[in-house]
Every structure is written in structure tokens, then in C-alpha cells.
Specification:
Layout: H1 7-23, H2 35-40, H3 44-49, H4 51-73
Length: 81
């Protein structure tokens, strides 16, 4: 492996993200609780205190639930590697 770093490739990666970030449209957040929030008794106010944490944790919980339902109901289910 060479010690040479190709700056063009790094710049290309940064440019792709820059275009993506600039094109992102932010929608107004819903003030309603979703089903998982209701299950755990979370309010939007609690979620707003640490959006990154709650988004990550609720997302992972939802993912695990979907995987489990698929395992139990889909004969040809195989988890992602």
C-alpha cells in the first residue's frame, strides 16, 4: 500500500456530501407522538430534550421489532449481514 493520499478522491467525497446537504429539505417536525413513544410513555417534549438519543434508540427498537416479526412470519427470512 502506498503512503500517497489522493486528495481528489477525498474532495470528491466532500463534494458529494456538500451537494446532498445543500439539497436537504427540512420538514416541520410533527408534534404528535408515534406508536413507540406511546408504548414507552414519551412525550414530544421529552424527545426534544435529546433528539439524537431518542431518534437512535427508538429507531433501533423499531428495527429490532420489524426483524423479529419477519423472523416469525416469513419462511425465507434471513437477517442482513
Amino acid at each position: 500500500m502506498s503512503n500517497f493520499i489522493d486528495d481528489r478522491h477525498l474532495e470528491s467525497i466532500l463534494q458529494q456530501y456538500s451537494v446532498s446537504f445543500n439539497a436537504k429539505e427540512f420538514i416541520q417536525e410533527s408534534l404528535e407522538e408515534d406508536d413507540l413513544m406511546l408504548v414507552f410513555g414519551l412525550t414530544q417534549e421529552i424527545k426534544d430534550l435529546n433528539k439524537q438519543y431518542w431518534g437512535r434508540e427508538l429507531g433501533k427498537c423499531g428495527e429490532r421489532l420489524v426483524i423479529e416479526v419477519c423472523k416469525q412470519s416469513c419462511a425465507d427470512f434471513s437477517p442482513a449481514i
